[in-house]
Amino acid sequence: SYGKMWGISGTAVRSIRPYQSSEQYLYAMKEDLAEWLKELYDLDINVDTFMEVLETGAVLCSHANNVTHVAGEFAHTCPDIARHLRLPTTGVTCNLTAQPGTFQARDNVSNFIQWCRKEMDIKDVLMFETEDLVLRKNEKNFVLCLLELARRAARFGMRAPTLVQMEEEIEEELRQELDLPPADTSLPRPPRKPRDLQNLDQMVQHLVSRCTCPVQFPMIKISEGKYRVGDSDTLIFVRILREHVMVRVGGGWDTLEHYLDKHDPCRCTS
Question: Transmembrane stretches, by residue range (predicted)?
């Protein structure tokens, strides 16, 4: 009956999920990372089995070793760019047969965490602890760490998840606006599937239209995928990721729904 409430089509109703908007961006990120790992390693993984498939640490350690291998090849073929990047030089030892919840699984995950810190220089605020994954104590930090690792590895030629590719597009757009030269480390990238932007504005307006303020919370389209919001001069970049409308916020992402829940006066009830 959401459909009756909003007068929207069946597809939109199906995408209204039974979780709070604050968990939505995590779901969207997990979905993106799962699809990326599936393509990268031909894994049987999806958003619902994401934590299960990764909790033994075997995939994580194999990924760390693959990233280290790609970095080595990059240092060999592009020594000039490589000099400016901190590249990982050693991989991790890994027990590929570790069972979930065992000491071996914790050992794998712990080795991966040490490698992220030492070899990839990932800062503590984006790191997770072994129990965050093994006992599901903190999915958010685990997901943010994987995304940050993907971001850094993309700099030396590792294939990146869609979210990271979108970040690069947005950064490039900002550089062009400011007349800055392209990023010196930009590598030739395989072209991304064409962006679904014609559908984007409709989805944005649909989400904004749920506003019940006497004067509707403004979200004005400046150019494709770029909007001015609220009474400020804040500009935000918006992209579609599967059925989620994502907003680039600071160094990260949010869903537009959650973003509006936090900024639209009639929705910030908490």
Answer: none
Task: Encode pLDDT of 123-153 as tens digits.
Answer: 999 999 999 999 999 999 999 999 999 999 9
pLDDT digits (tens, 9 = 90+) for 244-269: 999 998 788 999 999 998 888 888 76
pTM over 0.90, yes/no = no
DSSP string, the chain: -HHHHHT--HHHHHT--SS-HHHHHHHHHHHHHHHHHHHHHT----TTTHHHHHTTSHHHHHHHHHHHHHHHHHHHH-HHHHTTS----------TTPPTTSHHHHHHHHHHHHHHHHTT---GGG---HHHHHT-S-HHHHHHHHHHHHHHHHTTT----HHHHHHHHHHHHHHHHTTPPPPTTPPP-PPPPPP--TTHHHHHHHHHTT--SSSPPPEEEEETTEEEETTS--EEEEEEETTEEEEEETTEEEEHHHHHHHHSTTT---
Q: Are 247 and 236 in contact (CB under 8 A)?
A: yes
